[in-house]
Structures are given as structure tokens and as C-alpha cells.
Amino acid sequence: MNIWHALIGRPLKDREEQAVRVGVIEGLSVLAPDALSSVAYGTQEILIELQRAGITALWYVLPISAVIVVLLTFLVISYRQIIRSYPGGGGAYVIGRDTLGADASLIAGAALLIDYTLTVAVSVTAGVAAVVAAFPVLTPWTVGLSVAIVIVLAILNLRGLRESARAFALPTYLFIFMILLMAVVGLFKPLPEAPPWHSYITPPLGAVGLFVVLRAFSSGSSALTGIEAISNGVPIFQEPAPTRARTTLLLLGLFLGSMFLGTSIISYRYHIIPSANTTVLQQLAADIFGRGIFFYGLSFVTMAILAIAANTSFAGFPQLSSIMARDQWMPRMFLSRGDRLVYQNGVIILALVAIILIVGFGGNTTNLIPLYAIGVYLSFTIAMLSLAVKTWRNRTQFSKRAVIILVGMGLMGATLTALVVIVSLITKFTQGAWIVALALPLLIWGMRKIRRHYRAVADELRVTDYSLKPVPAKIVAVVPVNSINRLSIKSLSVALGLAEEVVALHVVRSQEPPHQFEERWEKWNPDPRIKLAVVPTQYRSVVRPVVRYVDLLSHQNPENHVVIILPELIVRYVWEHFLHNQLALTLETVFIFRKNVTVMIMPYKLQGH
Amino acid sequence: MNIWHALIGRPLKDREEQAVRVGVIEGLSVLAPDALSSVAYGTQEILIELQRAGITALWYVLPISAVIVVLLTFLVISYRQIIRSYPGGGGAYVIGRDTLGADASLIAGAALLIDYTLTVAVSVTAGVAAVVAAFPVLTPWTVGLSVAIVIVLAILNLRGLRESARAFALPTYLFIFMILLMAVVGLFKPLPEAPPWHSYITPPLGAVGLFVVLRAFSSGSSALTGIEAISNGVPIFQEPAPTRARTTLLLLGLFLGSMFLGTSIISYRYHIIPSANTTVLQQLAADIFGRGIFFYGLSFVTMAILAIAANTSFAGFPQLSSIMARDQWMPRMFLSRGDRLVYQNGVIILALVAIILIVGFGGNTTNLIPLYAIGVYLSFTIAMLSLAVKTWRNRTQFSKRAVIILVGMGLMGATLTALVVIVSLITKFTQGAWIVALALPLLIWGMRKIRRHYRAVADELRVTDYSLKPVPAKIVAVVPVNSINRLSIKSLSVALGLAEEVVALHVVRSQEPPHQFEERWEKWNPDPRIKLAVVPTQYRSVVRPVVRYVDLLSHQNPENHVVIILPELIVRYVWEHFLHNQLALTLETVFIFRKNVTVMIMPYKLQGH
């Protein structure tokens, strides 16, 4: 426990909770990196898809980016609305649950949990891959480095959110500043020469192909993943939490929108053609500022923001899983907050699964990148649809104009996001989308099983009738006695204290003198209430005869409760533990499946040494 | 347990013990391979050492082998005498204990245990190395194959000695037959041509150097390692065990002596010069029978006998460690015989340590070969010296001639074997003998510590005074209650049955409504004997307040025995286990160090599912 507390800090009291929550500025650096980091690849994904239809098709980056920013606006407005309605957090999951029912909410919740897990694995390995590309000497440690980063993230988050907020504020805000600076300079800096290949004339859609545009749109949509995190994690903000969460979301939307749109426009203005050797952001930086400090600074900060994007999941996963655990879809352990008031089991499980993914994929998780969008966009669709339905149901509470806007926006948003899900599933099925198509139903099936189990247990344990009261059980104590010593005396003393009927059980092996112990016992004559039972055995192990005797005893009197008292020597040093028989543990394991039989391990602490 | 029994067979009763013991023929194939396999390298070791002093020095293989066979005769006579005196087995350890005292016996016992462990690692890897040399495609699996063989040996020996006796009879007797056949044919077959380099004249000793001869002698002595195994494992023979053991030892001595002497003589007759590419046995087979079936057959059988030499250790180690455990030098667990009447912990520990050695040395344990002799010869020295001292002390019981023979032989044998220990330690110290020089004192130190611990515990627990009787303890039952349900009702029923004073302990977290549970409790009003204690906490974990309350309780009344009753849900499937809190286990771990506090885990078996 001391090592544990040295790692995660001293236990906190409940009233210290406000102090561990975050404000708007910190909240942005905890919950925004996932979304912001997608600026690093959003525009690039669109350009790569368009390039397949020829270089003139690159023009479409402009309208596609515009549509994505419109979708971003819808999402920000919708999720701000959702935060207002659900100040306890939970985002798409809770609004889906209350509006569309359990099935929809399960899909949204499970999809997000999968997405959060993938995000940790993918973004950490992406960051490490960038570092390893820069320093090839690190190649053998690729997996080790990734795992180490996940562990560091987990520890930071077990200490509390503010710790990671502080650690990650600098790269987050530096990334925002650098991208915006580049966008502004890139927009207004005079171009060195006239563009050689584009005509500023819209190429006809037919020439490009609707499907290419749809693919480019759905790939570019990955830029919006991560903006749901704030709505899931409302309770991590200081009070008034919903207000602060809404402000943070608005800021995130403004930053993300302008960064993404700016990047897309200047990449068109500078005729960036995606290349395998460098990123679009690097090409832009080189074209606008030259290969100087800004170029290398931006490369480094991009690397950092990719790695800490994982941190957003460490905020989102534990919050969402605790909300789903409250609804009994997840194991109860996700509900328990640790000494640092964090849902520590969520943090630990997330880190473990991410580490398994990283190790399983040998540190190369680029294959998982296409999976990102599907889970998040499923939850977007459910959130938008829920919002439309919810607004319509409560339409009397809104002005007519608000109803039209919210319902219209919700339906349009749901259609657009559903489109992204369908296009991604189709185009990326063989590239890995099948994993989500497989994992999602499995996870939902598991969650249903969990809930059924909890329901059944609760039904069985429930007391509806307060006339049901405890009735003193008749206790029979059984004390296995090997020889007469202080250990047996103490066990028998406790046995006499707790039961009317005490049996001292002595097992005699066939090659031992049969009556020796009985004679000693009679000479000792400890207490008239203790009955001595001598059980012969043909076998070597004493477990079998003890089990058989106890089974017989509880068969004769099923109403009795048999308590087997087993002394266990408590030694001072760990190695001494191996010097004593572990009969107590063995018997405890055997009897745990018997009804009305309990093993009581009585520690006997050795004094002298 | 089912998998376990499928592996090792059904449990056996004590009266079935005779059936699992071995006769002379089987005993030889269990206990002889270690000694017999040394024929594969004994002569070769002598030749390698002599070769350093020039080719004429090879003549010395004859007198050296003769001295070794004399030593073998001494050892066989002595150990037959020891078996007669100690029909319970234990060899050098028990005769050393009774004659020279605890220190000498500890040295002999510890040296043999180390030797048995090394034998397993070395002989298995030697066998695998031979196979891998024949089939280089297996190279990547060297370590895996060695570990697998150790596991198979362990399982065979857990099933019982007869199993391994049956499995290994064929290669053992085939090896004996082939070597003896080769010796006889090699002795009498006319030589094709006159010897070119030797003169049949004894080279002067000064020319060779006394030290070279001593080294050759001590290297060749490794041929005798393994003959002590029978005296350690007397109890594995069918009754009359000592007679059968003595017969087996005599047979082993005759076989080993004639095989070893025969090999040495024909290797001189055929002018074998040791080579790095082939073994002396292979050279002999090729010269005498040509490179035909016999040559390949002998190579294969030699490989097999090297590998199964490890099996001798699996018979010797568990027997010796059980005898030393009875004297409290080893942990008690080595005393417990399993369901198959084998000292199973000895088998398992031996296999584990050997596997650690194999993996640690990367499957290349040739460096450990020189260590063989030291441990065994230490035990030989102690056995021979003990025999001399013992005979002298009891000289009145023997005829004068017998006393002279036994004492003289014991002293001469002790001198010769001590010489081997000293020469081996000096010449092979840097080659690995330092490991024995380090491990032996360490092991002895550990054994002394173990005995001290057992003595101290026994002193503390001993009851010398039969007037000391159990006094009923005053029991206070504490039942942590979270809510009113069947679980708490059952726990409280058991609590009422076993204690006068029952406390229902409810922990309220600071953000929960403080009096809600108390009101429900009063409405329920379960039993006037149950006192409700509501403990508020500022922290998240309920462990802290429960521990604090119980500590206070037992501080107020140190005479009371506090029993904490913790219900634990017993689920049907393993995965369901993770759905419930493991509070019971946590509290059991915390309270195991408290005096007069016992945790009673009350299993509550769920019915419905």
C-alpha cells in the first residue's frame, strides 16, 4: 500500500473533491487533445482520397471541409444542449437511453467504450512511431516505449485529472497557437508564383465520382472524433459543471473548426499534394515558414498532441463506464472510486486493454486507425437522433423556431453521421472495420449478460417483507486437531465460545498407532462439551476425511451451520510461510461451495521470533 | 483436480504401497542410469587429461582405471553395509548424522541435494544437445525440448516410480548389453596391425607428472557418481527392501565396474585418442564393429541413457529431502506424500529448480558438468569416514578381521574420495566448481535457519502442562451491513448463533443521506441483541472505517474475540466473479495480522442461475 500511495498520492477525503476537478482552461487540455489532434490528419485524409480521382479533384477539399465544419457546428450545438439536459454526463449514452431506449443507448455506450480503448492504443503508438522514425536507434523498444507511456498516463490519471491537465496544457495550447498562426499567415502571405495546374473552376462532379467524394467526406470526418468527450465527462468540471463544460465545448468547437478549415483552405491555396514521406502539416509549414524552427517545432508538437490524445480517453472511459455500471451494464467495480476520487478501475482496465492491443499488434496499430470514426459516429447518430426526438416530444417547452432548428439540425446531423458510418463500414471493412463490426455486438451481448446476472442476484437477495428477520442459527464448531498444543487450545477456546456443540476432529492414517491420540486426549480431558471424533483414513491427504466428516455432519442436521475453525500460523518473514502447511487455504477453497458450512481461519501470531 | 488426476493417475491407498514399490530389475532401471551413463564419459575424461602430457602418457589410463575400480569396490561394500544399518534409506546423510554429528550430515545431505539438481539439468541438456547435433533443425527449440523432458520426467515420477522404471528399462539394459558386448569383442578380436606408437613399457611417472595423473584420476572418478542413489532410496524397494537394495547395488557395481574397466582397456588396446568431433565410445564402436547398425545404435542408446540419468535424481531427491525434512532441515512440505504415495513436493521442486537452471543457462549446461563429482565425493568421504568410525566404536560386535577390513577400507576410501574433492575443487574452481563452493554453504545456512524456526515454533506451541485447558472465549460478532437483504439476514443469523454480542456495522459516506439506513433499520427492528453501529467516513473505501471500528472494539475489551462475518456471493461461472466486490478478501488480508480478530467468510451460494 505504501508503494501504491507513493505513486498515486495520499488518499483524499470527499470534501476535497472540488479541488481535484478542473476549470475551463484545464478541462480543454484534458478533453480536447483527442479532437484537436485530428487536425493533424483530417485534411490529409481528404486529400489522399480525392487524389485517387486525379489532381483536379483536390478542389473538392473546400466544399467537403465546409460540410464537415457545418456538421461540427451541429454537433457542438447538439452536445451543448445535451450537457444542459444531462449535467451528470454520459452524452450520447444517457440521451439515447432516455429517448430511444436501452438498445440505442447500449450501442452508443459500447461503441464509445471501444473507441476510447482503440484511441489509447492507436494514438500512443502513433506518437511513438513518430519518435522512432526520428530516432531509429529506438526501434527495438517500440512496444516497450508504447506500454511505458500507457502506464505513465494511467498513473497520472490515477493521481487525478488535474495532474494530467497540468502536464499536458503546454503542448495542447502550443499546438492550437501554431496551427492558427500558420493558417492566418498561409491565408494572407502572397503566393510566390501562379498555380500551374488548377483553374479555380469547379470540376464537374461526374468526373470525380460521387463515391470518391463520399469516401473523402467520411475520411475527413475523423477530424471530429473526440468532441463527444466533454459531454461524457461533465462531472470532472468544477461547479457549475454544466456551464463550464458548455463553455469548454464551445471553445473546442471554435478552435477545431477554424484550425481544420484553415488547414484545408491553405493546403488548397498552396497546392499541397499528399506524399508518403511527409505530412500535409509539414508540407504547409515548410512552404509557409521554410524548414526552420517553426517546421521542427510543429513536427514535435504534433507528435506530442497525438500521444496525449490518449489522455482524453483516460478521462472519458472511466466516466462513461461508471455511468453504465450504475445502470448495471458494466461490472460494479467500475463504480468504485479510489482514494484519489478517480474511478480507478476504469483507468486500470482501460490501460490494461490498451496494453494488450499494443502488444498483440506488435506496436503497429496503424491498421486500427480506420476504426476510429465508426464507433464515434455511431454515437453521434444516436445523440443527434435522440435530440431530435426529445425536442419533438417536449416541443411545447420550446419556441416554434427552436423546435424547427433543433429537430431539423438533429435529423440532418443524424443523416450525415449515419452516412459516415455506412461509408466507413463499406469502404474500410476489410481494412479493419470488421473488428468493430465484430467487437460491438460481442460487447453488447456481454453487457446484457452482466445486467441479467445483476438482476437475478438482486431478485434473489431482495427482502420485500420486513417481517423476515434473522433467526439464531444452531452452530456446530469443528476443530481439526493434529496434536495437543497451544494452537489447538486457542482454536478450541474460540470454538467453545461460539458453539454449543464442539467437535475436535482427529485424522489417523492407517500406518499410525490407532489409539495413541485418544489416550492422550482422555488424559488431558479438556472440556466435557468437546466431543472427540477420530477418523481413520486410508489415504495420504487429510483433506478427504475432513470433507467427508463435515459433509456427513451437515447431512445429518441440515439446519445446523457448521463452522470449521482452522488455525493458521502467522510468521514474521515471507519465506517462513513456506515452512508451514497450507491446509487452511486448501480447505477454504473446498468448502466455499458447501451450503451452511463456513471456514474460519484463525490467525495465530507467533510471538518469539 | 480432474486434470491433475488425469495426469498422475487415481489416488492410492496406503495399503497399495507395496504395489508401487520396485523390485531389483525395475530398481536398477530407476536408480542405475545416473551411474551407468558415466561410462559414456568416464574413460574419455581420463584420456583427455592424460593427453595433455603427450601420447605416451595415455598408458596411465590402465592403472588409473584400476584404482577407480578398487574405489568402486570399496564404495559398493561400504554402501551395502550402510543399507544394512539404515534400512530406512538416507545413505551418507543418516550415517553421517549418527556417527559424525549434525555438521557432517548437513554437508553430505546438502551436497547430494545440489548434485541431484545439477544432474537433472546437465543430463537432460546433454541428451538434448546430442539430439540437436544430429538434427540441427531443432536448434531453436533446445531450451524448450529440455524443459519439456524435465516436465515429462516429473509427471512420470508423480505417477509413481514403477511408471518410470517401466519406461526406462529398455534403454538401460540395452546400454549395459551393448557396452559389455563391445568390451568382450574388443578384448579378443585380433588387432589389424601392430601398434605404431606405444611400447608396452611403463613411461616414468616423472615424465608425465604426478599432478596430471591426479587430475586424470579425479576426472575419471566422475564415473562413480550415482552409485550412492540406491542407499538413499532404500524405501522405494519392495520388502524386504534392504535385501533388494543390496542386491541391486551389487549388480550395479558389477555392471559398472566391468563396463568401465572394459572400456578403458579396449580404448588403450585400440589406441583411442580423444577427439573433439566424436566420443571415445563412438571411436571404439567404429573400430570394433565398423560404422554400421551397432555404431548408430550405441550412439542413440548413449543419448537415451544420458537423458534418463536425470530420472535417478527424481528417485533420490524426494527420498533424501523427506528424510532431511523429518529432521527439520527442510520445509515440512517435503514430508507430505501425495495421492500416489510419492513425495510429490520433492519431485515438483526438483523439476522447478532444474528448469530454472536450464532456462538460466540457455540450455547450455556443459559448464556445470565439472561440478558433478564434488558434491557426490563429499558425501562419499563422509560416508566412508562414518563407516570407519562406526565400525571402530562397535568393534566388539565384529570379528577382528572384519574390523580391520571395514575400518581400513573406510579410511582408505575416505582418503581417496577426499583427494578427488580437493583436486576437483582446485583444478576446476574457475570452470564452475566455485558454484558448489558458494551454493553449499548457502544451502547449509538456509537449512540451519529452517531448523531454528521449527524449533522456536515448537517451543512456543508446546504444552507441557496438561492442566492448560481451553476456556470459552467471549465472542463479539461484527457484521458489516450495506443494506437489508437476504445476505445480511443470513450473516446476522449466523452471528446471533455464535455470539452473545452482535454488532451490525453500517458505513455511511459523507455524500450519502446520513440517517436513511438507521430509519430503515428501526422499521425492520431485527433482533434486540443486535446493536446497530453507524460509522461515517470521509473517504471512499469502506476498509478504513471497518478496520478502525474493529480495532477500537478489541482495544476496549482485549479479552474478547472479535469475529467479522463477511458474506461472499458464490457465483456459478468464473466471469461472474468479477461482477462482485472483493471486500471479503481485502479485509481477510488486513485482519490476518490482528490478535484475537478473525475474519469468517460466509459463502452465500446463489441458487437461481
From TrEMBL, chains A, B:
Keyword Repeat appears in the UniProt entry: no
Subcellular location, record wording: Membrane
Main subcellular location: membrane
Residue spans crossing the bilayer: 57-77, 106-132, 138-156, 168-188, 200-217, 249-273, 293-320, 341-363, 369-389, 401-423, 429-447
Any one Gene Ontology molecular-function term assigned to this protein's record: transmembrane transporter activity
UniProtKB keywords: Membrane, Transmembrane, Transmembrane helix
Statement: the UniProt record of this protein carries the keyword Ligase: no
Entry superkingdom: Bacteria
GO terms for cellular component: membrane
Membrane topology category: Multi-pass membrane protein
InterPro entries linked: AA/rel_permease1, APC_K+_Transporter
PANTHER family found in the cross-reference section: POTASSIUM TRANSPORTER KIMA
Name of the protein in its database record: Amino acid/polyamine/organocation transporter, APC superfamily
